[in-house]
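Quick log. Single chain, no ligands specified.
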Amino acid sequence: MKLKVFHIVARSISYNLKNAVYQASIILLLAAVITGSLLTGKSVRKSLRQTSLEKLGNTGILISSGIRYFDPSLAERISSETGLKTTGLLELDGYCQHFSSGQTASRIKIYGITDDFFSFQGHPGLVVNKGEIAVNERLADYLGIKTGDELIIRFNSISSIPADAPFSPGKGATASMVLKTGAIFTSANSGNFSLGITQITPMNIFINRSDLVDADGKIPEINRLLLENQKSMTVDDIYKDLCSVIKP
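-> predicted structure:
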């Protein structure tokens, strides 16, 4: 008996149904995986970008002297030459201890700043009063710090001669201070400021640079210079301007 076209198609579908279902399921699964990966990647990129903005703020270019120091007036000279907003700071590694509870936090960042630091970051109303410190939320939560609490801060002695240099007078020497917490800053107002390449939220202490002293008993110089994010300025442009204003 001659089969009709309908019966041929029906039998063909019935015979290949199992393989067709498998292929359709695999296609749907792969489409879901690829779509999920794209959405996750977009979310991760957005999260990383947001984290970077919280840490860097308005910083576009960093001039670092490593473990050396340079004259704070360089910030004003490079600003006049480039027309960019700048701010200089002293970045130190250290650790601190809650004066009352005795709990300690290691590997903290101590930033010796001036009044223009938070203005540079877009928060002109924020200041760190002399004789006080400000901490970020992560450090405050870790040590249970409240405004008005005192902290013992310890860091390596600030000297123009690196501590690991032979016969360095500051070799192994540490400085310590006891200061009151005047403010607790959030990520929204540069509390999580960081120049390091890491996704870990730092534990920060901000202190007036004039409250610090170097090995000679003077207000220390700076080791980081921040320039605002300006797309019209390239690293090569900044380097040329730096060479024209730097003094031996």
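The mean pLDDT is 85.
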